[in-house]
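Hi everyone,

Forwarding the result from last night's run.
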Amino acid sequence: MPSFSDILAKESIFVDRNVLSPHYIPEILLFREEQIEKIMKVLSPAFKNERPHNLFIYGKTGTGKTASVKNIMKKFNDMERKEAVMTYVNCKVYNTRYRIIQKIAKTYISELDKSGFGLTYIYEKLVSWIIENKIRLIIVLDEVDMIKELDDLIYTLTRMNDELSEGSVSLLGISNKFNFKDELDARSKSSLYETEMVFTSYSAIELQEILKYRSNLGFKKGIVDESAINLTAAITASENGDARYALRLLLKAGEIAEDKNREKITDSEVEEARRNVDEDLAAEAIITLPDHQQLVLLSVADLDLKGSRYEKLNEEESGFLFSGEVYEEYRRNCKKHKKKPRTARWFQEYLNDLEMLGLITMVESGKGIRGHTRLIRIGYSAESLKNIIERNFRRGSIPTDSGEVL
């Protein structure tokens, strides 16, 4: 039987595998220098005892939004100016108004470490702390579109400034959805005086440079073939331009090479890694989806397994499902899982979200089909996706629609 000593004694092709993690924040963020400077300019008034504008950053997954903001947060907090602070909230984890305001307040007010305080009490304590210390508080809301009762949260935080005789609150929102503001009501939109910024996807050439930089830090010299880096960049650029995906692909290729005692990472390891990583990412994406998006995806998987009732009408687009029949299946699944179905307009938004994540693909119907509809094809194994979602339901991990109120 092998021991830990035997495993640790084996020579590794890695120098530091953490460098290839999507959670690693490098000192140098290639191709994001311009965006970082613009964000810093928006936030800099905090050091002049002025309130920075609210800022919202948009862009697809893996475009460097969070990494750039965390890089800036380190520089911001290194200034050691007690009157200006930035706090980070992962809204996939803290996804209600109560949890977010509690998380922010507990960071700075020790008495709130105990549980059981109501939202009104926490809110008033936070207001008092800002006034007493004359704080310019900047709240980073990462994955802001994941927040339930988002209208209430934005209204509460932005209107907090009306109660502050000293200090201020500013929001820095990060979202993968360009249209998330469309979901806000007029009250919330009027509360936001915002600056907006879009992070575009990385090109194949940019991804090559990012991968070279990280591989030089993460692997021993000469381990990664240049062709493997080029292939990883080309695959990523053709699919989504997601730098996190590219890094994960390279990390998995390294793990495959090490497990099989290979001295090089070549195209072969990258291709093998691609199959593994795609399935892992699909599972991760599904687990974090809100309940109705999961129900829509479950409906696509169900119909894919059963077969479309309108297949003969759609011979030119084999394997695609009609949007209308998916919506009917979605309503049935809502009833089965005791969820109130959303309107057809929201259903279309959920489809857009799933397509953005690469879980489905969509095309517009051709001339041979009466009327105008969207055709939907599942992006992964229908059976695998169905099993993942149903397992989530059995575990009770799908979030509810309830939330606290102020």
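The two ends are 59 Å apart (CA to CA).

Cheers,
N.
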